[in-house]
Amino acid sequence: MQAHNSWQVKEIGDKKEHNYLTWSQAHWQETLQDVFANEQIELMVQQVFDKDETPIFGEIFSRLKLDNEIASAQAFLPMVDRFDLHVEFDKAVVNTLIRSMETIR
User: Rounded to an integer, what distance in angstroms lies between the CA atom of residue 15 and that of residue 26?
Assistant: First the structure.
């Protein structure tokens, strides 16, 4: 039985159950604020190629560390939208990107 204020989020093509998929609204909001404040974000780069298969740029995807797992955007973006945490999310992503670029130098 689920509480009335919970959300069920399903990841497409993923048969494994994730605890965060059945969190209450309050738990989602608290966790997202904590994740953004502590910048617990993983960045993944996917190369984009032209028609001649020459790499032209890298597209960066963000993942969040939720419940000791790496969650894809389809799991958390609806909650970012629901709680209007776009600014906090963007700041955390940009700060994570800047930190990772500084370690490359």
Answer: 25
Nearest to 43 by CA among 58, 65, 66, 60: 60
Q: Which residue has the higher pLDDT, 8 or 58?
A: 58
Whose structure tokens read 């009335």?
A: 4
> Which is higher by pLDDT, 60 or 7?
60
Cα–Cα distance between 18 and 97 in angstroms, integer?
A: 26
Buried b (16+ CB within 10 A) or exposed e, 52-90: eeeeeeeeeebbbebeeeebeeebbbebbeebebeebbe
